[in-house]
Q: What sequence folds into this?
């Protein structure tokens, strides 16, 4: 847990710096500077790029995390594992680009009318696919070398800082919207370039694969993991992007823009999970290789309760300030109010199960996660088809909540049945009660006329009401330890 704790703390700091930048960009600047259609365009091109880049990876991310312990050997340059990764990515890229271009008639025809703006920027998705694929390959390689923070810093901080600069250039009318899109795409590809430079500077750019090291047994296992990795990774990215793509196709770019802005607030609680998962998956893979179930169980329990503390605090903080949220953004986005609620609840299910998908994918039952994710993808598509026509963008959020609940329930039951692993104790029940009680008490606070003052006072009250009992009831040992360290440093100064 030492590596996980250290990098999770550093990674979370960078992630929340990125969240602050993202908040300025998404919650403050986008609604004031761009139309809902223009916001929707930026989100849709990234969603298409992410989807096709994940497919282009051909499941090698899963292969990297699960199989790299067999290749790990600094003296032998890890047997050229990075070169093997790039070789597979090249093959996948050719296939992915061919599929994307072949689908152009269908995408363009469907986009006529409500999403016509996307047709002008159809080809801008291609460089995003290429560099998103490279980022995935380089970032995964750094992760398996126990350096998950570098990719987080480049993507969450540097990339968003550049996007902020681009938006300000547009705001001061130094560039037009066409150049905004061009510079936005360049900002999105910057982390890949920076990771490439970092690989060279740290002398980790070993791109000559050692094919002699890969015996028949290892090759067959890598192929098997890769095949199911394609299904798992593509399904995983599909469920993260399908709602925005289906909203774009069914309701148009404007609705996609409203969903993008309000969706952002609901996803804030996932930041620590993403950070912990990146390094946690590598440690779990090594634990499985050593058949160390005790370490895996410890990571599972601690990640669940620690992440739930942060997640619930953020959720009640956001929902407690929900009226203030819409003071900050234009009334045009008010139809997405309940999107924040349902997406927040949906993401709490992910938070509660901690690193469960990483436990499954790195075990001998890794194939099952692919099945679960594939079922999840089908479920979310079906629920979106049923609920978007009835409830609009709120229907997409409800679809995500229902699908995530079922998906996480299946993961929970699977890990309990196969390994008798489960993360919950009575402390989790106490935590939920503390969260509900803290929110309920905060509702008695009258609203201030100045919404900024209201945010500060209300958030401070919720924080105190929540964290005091969490600390004194020792809900999370890791969080208590962190708080004690902070107090010790303050006293020593």
A:
């Amino acid at each position: 847990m030492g590596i996980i704790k250290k990098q999770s703390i550093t990674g979370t700091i960078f992630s929340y710096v990125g969240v602050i930048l993202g908040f300025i960009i998404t919650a403050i600047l986008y609604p004031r500077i761009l139309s809902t259609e223009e916001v929707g365009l930026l989100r849709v091109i990234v969603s298409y790029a992410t989807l096709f880049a994940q497919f282009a990876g051909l499941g090698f991310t899963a292969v990297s995390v699960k199989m790299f312990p067999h290749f790990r050997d600094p003296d032998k340059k890890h047997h050229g594992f990075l070169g093997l990764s790039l070789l597979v990515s090249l093959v996948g890229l050719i296939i992915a680009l061919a599929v994307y271009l072949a689908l152009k008639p269908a995408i363009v025809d469907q986009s006529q009318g409500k999403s016509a703006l996307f047709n002008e920027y159809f080809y801008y998705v291609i460089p995003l696919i290429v560099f998103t694929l490279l980022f995935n390959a380089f970032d995964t390689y750094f992760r398996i070398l126990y350096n998950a923070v570098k990719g987080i810093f480049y993507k969450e901080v540097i990339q968003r800082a550049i996007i902020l600069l681009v938006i300000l250039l547009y705001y001061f009318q130094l560039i037009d919207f066409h150049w905004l899109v061009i510079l936005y795409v360049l900002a999105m590809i910057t982390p890949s370039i920076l990771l490439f430079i970092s690989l060279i500077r740290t002398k980790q750019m070993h791109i000559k694969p050692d094919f002699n090291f890969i015996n028949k047994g290892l090759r067959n296992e890598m192929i098997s993991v890769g095949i199911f990795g394609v299904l798992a990774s593509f399904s995983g990215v599909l469920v993260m992007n399908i709602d925005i793509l289906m909203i774009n196709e069914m309701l148009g770019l404007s609705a996609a823009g409203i969903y993008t802005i309000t969706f952002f607030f609901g996803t804030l609680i996932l930041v620590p999970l993403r950070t912990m998962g990146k390094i946690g998956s590598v440690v779990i893979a090594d634990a499985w290789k050593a058949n160390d179930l005790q370490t895996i169980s410890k990571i599972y329990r601690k990640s669940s309760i620690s992440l739930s503390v942060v997640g619930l605090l953020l959720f009640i903080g956001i929902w407690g300030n929900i009226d203030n949220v819409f003071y900050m953004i234009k009334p045009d986005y008010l139809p997405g109010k309940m999107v924040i609620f349902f997406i927040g609840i949906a993401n709490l299910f992910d938070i509660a199960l901690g690193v469960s998908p990483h436990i499954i994918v790195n075990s001998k039952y890794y194939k099952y996660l692919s099945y679960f994710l594939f079922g999840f993808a089908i479920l979310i598509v079906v629920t979106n088809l049923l609920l978007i026509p009835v409830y609009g963008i709120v229907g997409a959020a409800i679809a995500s909540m229902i699908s995530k609940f079922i998906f996480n329930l299946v993961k929970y039951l699977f890990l309990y049945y196969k390994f008798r692993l489960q993360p919950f104790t009575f402390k989790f029940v106490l935590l939920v009660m503390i969260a509900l009680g803290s929110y309920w008490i905060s509702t008695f606070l009258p609203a201030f006329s100045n919404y900024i003052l209201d945010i500060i006072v209300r958030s401070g009250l919720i924080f105190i009401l929540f964290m005091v009992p969490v600390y004194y009831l020792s809900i999370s040992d890791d969080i208590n330890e962190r708080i004690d360290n902070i107090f010790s440093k303050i006293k020593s100064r």
In short: Residues 2-424 form one domain.
